[in-house]
């Protein structure tokens, strides 16, 4: 027994020492508490860069200030010697059990001549090299969101990683799609004890079985064949689920502002958009799948016809694809107008479906529609409360999880929030498909009774747009 004790001690994995680049703290100020049992080292140059970026009202400046405040609280609340490291267990409420080390000495390392020492990135690399020499055998890893910084580190023989903690999913193919095809033998394997009935023109089935346990609330299920089935999960408890047939918005009698669904996923999306019990909807899909058109049609119907909501509010992130064209003149709405080309294009389509009325009738309808749609900038959303509104967040893939939280928590009583986006078209720096705010909310809201999600597959814009999306 006495011989086994040291072996078990040896088998314990050695904790790593992570050196944080500035962009990690500016991307996620809580990253200090995200490394579990491992230790963190913050170079003096990281603190200098935080200080240089703390001024301003941007998200980066706010994060820099929060990271500095967090480090200040950790340092001032601890009596531990900085040389020995400051325990993170208490400041992180048990999230992290490692230690925080701050650079407390001048470090002089001979960098290759090609790397100028005046550059802050290179000084951080010198610190990593020094730590590798000081702790032989211990893994010392640089954590940076900067790809070039990681490449330079690896070129110098140093270990470097991206910051992965903010990623909701490693592989976006695993992202919840909101739809599921039922296997051919579904009814045979789930027929035992099945109940069914009719309610308000819809048929429901209470099924129990292995697949029913996997289904999520408000997930859409379908089965091709004769007869075909399109339903959604309205109740879920353990291995029992209730499937209820959906409204067929492909039929002209159920048109929404003159628009009918052209495929199965669009039909699912309209069922979510038109259902008053669903407060939060996310629609993913590539360009031309009809996200904005369906959402606007559903919004106009419920604002102008059924009077369920008082008005439509539309917002989006103003991240340019090319060079920025500078400041724009006018009021908030006028400044946002160039970013809202998608809204105008879709209003042209919807205005053409309102029936015959000549030029005057068409112009009057357009003015009426336009008066019930407000365009707002994200910059002025803090502290607001939207009551009884139909809130559309376009290009939501460019939002960070924190920005997404800020927006969705603006919803007051009677408000419906719809997030639209294509995670393959992210323009925000340092944001990836796995860490996008849109991916974040799709994953977090799945299965909630008052939210739904659909990934639109088929492009319906034109054969040219479909082919371009496929081959380019």
| Order of neighbouring strands in the sheet with most strands | 3-4-2-1-5-6
Largest sheet: 6 strands, mixed
The coarse silhouette is: globular
DSSP strand (E) fraction? 15-25%
The residue fraction in helices comes out at 25-40%
Task: For the record, give the distance between the C-alpha atoms at the N and C termini, rounded to a whole number.
Answer: 66 Å
Overall pLDDT confidence: 84
Low-confidence stretches: 1-12
Summed up, the helix count is 16
Specify the structural class: alpha/beta
Q: What is the rounded Rg?
A: 27 Å
Q: How many strands in all?
A: 18
Oligomer: single chain
Summarize the structure.
With 472 residues, the protein is of the alpha/beta class. 33% of the residues lie in helices and 19% in strands.
Task: Characterize the structure shown.
This protein is α/β, with parallel strands linked by helices and 472 residues long. Helix content is 33%, strand content 19%. It contains 16 helices and 18 strands. Strand 5, helix 6 (147-155) and strand 6 form a beta-alpha-beta unit. Helix 3 (44-52) runs antiparallel to helix 5, helix 10 (291-305) packs across helix 12 and helix 14 crosses helix 15.
What is the strand and helix layout of this fold?
Blueprint: H1 4-11, E1 17-20, H2 22-27, E2 39-42, H3 44-52, H4 59-76, E3 86-87, E4 99-102, H5 120-134, E5 140-143, H6 147-155, E6 159-161, E7 179-181, H7 186-189, E8 195-199, E9 202-208, H8 210-214, E10 220-223, E11 229-237, E12 240-245, H9 264-273, E13 280-285, H10 291-305, E14 311-316, H11 332-336, H12 341-351, H13 358-371, E15 373-375, E16 389-394, H14 401-408, E17 416-421, H15 437-445, E18 451-456, H16 463-471
Parallel strand pairs: 1-2, 1-5, 2-4, 5-6, 7-10, 13-17, 13-18, 14-15, 14-16, 16-17
Antiparallel strand pairs: 3-4, 8-9, 9-12, 10-11, 11-12
Helix pairs in contact: 3-5, 9-10, 10-12, 14-15
């Amino acid at each position: 027994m006495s011989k086994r004790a040291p072996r078990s001690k040896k088998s314990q994995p050695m904790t790593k020492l992570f050196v944080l680049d500035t962009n990690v703290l500016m991307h996620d100020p809580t990253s200090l508490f995200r490394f579990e049992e491992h230790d963190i080292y913050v170079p003096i140059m990281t603190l200098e860069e935080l200080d240089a970026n703390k001024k301003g009202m941007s998200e980066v400046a706010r994060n820099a200030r929060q990271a500095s405040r967090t480090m200040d609280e950790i340092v001032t609340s601890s009596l531990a010697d900085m040389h020995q490291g400051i325990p993170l267990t208490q400041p992180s409420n048990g999230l992290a059990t490692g230690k925080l080390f701050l650079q407390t000495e001048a470090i002089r390392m001979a960098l290759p001549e090609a790397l100028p020492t005046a550059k802050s990135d290179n000084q951080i690399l010198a610190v990593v090299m020094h730590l590798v020499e000081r702790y032989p055998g211990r893994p010392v890893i640089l954590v940076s969101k900067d790809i070039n910084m990681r490449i330079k580190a690896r070129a110098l023989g140093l270990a470097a990683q991206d910051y992965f903690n903010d990623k909701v999913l490693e592989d976006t193919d695993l992202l919840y799609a909101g739809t599921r095809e039922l296997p051919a033998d579904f009814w045979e394997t789930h027929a035992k004890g099945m109940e069914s009935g009719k309610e308000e023109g819809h048929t429901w089935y209470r099924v129990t079985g292995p697949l029913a346990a996997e289904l999520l609330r408000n997930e859409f299920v379908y089965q091709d064949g004769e007869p075909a089935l399109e339903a959604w999960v309205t109740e879920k408890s353990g291995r029992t689920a209730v499937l209820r047939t959906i409204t067929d918005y492909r039929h002209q009698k159920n048109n929404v502002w003159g628009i009918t669904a052209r495929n199965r996923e669009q039909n699912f999306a309209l069922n979510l958009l038109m259902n008053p019990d669903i407060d939060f909807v996310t629609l993913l899909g590539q360009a031309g799948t009809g996200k904005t058109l369906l959402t606007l049609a559903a919004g106009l119907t419920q604002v102008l016809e059924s009077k369920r909501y008082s008005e439509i509010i539309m917002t989006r992130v103003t991240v340019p694809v090319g060079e920025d064209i500078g400041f724009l003149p006018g009021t908030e709405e006028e400044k946002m107008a160039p970013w809202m080309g998608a809204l105008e294009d879709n209003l042209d389509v919807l205005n053409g479906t309102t029936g015959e009325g000549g030029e005057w009738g068409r112009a009057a309808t357009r003015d009426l529609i336009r008066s019930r749609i407000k365009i707002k900038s994200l910059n002025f959303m803090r502290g607001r409360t939207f009551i009884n509104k139909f809130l559309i967040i376009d290009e939501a893939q460019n939002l960070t999880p924190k920005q997404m939280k800020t927006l969705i928590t603006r919803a007051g009583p009677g408000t419906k929030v719809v997030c639209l986006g294509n995670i393959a078209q992210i323009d925000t720096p340092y944001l990836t498909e796995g860490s996008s705010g849109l991916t974040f909310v799709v994953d977090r809201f799945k299965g909630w009774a008052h939210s739904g999600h659909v990934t639109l597959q088929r492009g319906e814009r034109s054969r040219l747009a479909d082919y371009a999306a496929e081959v380019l």
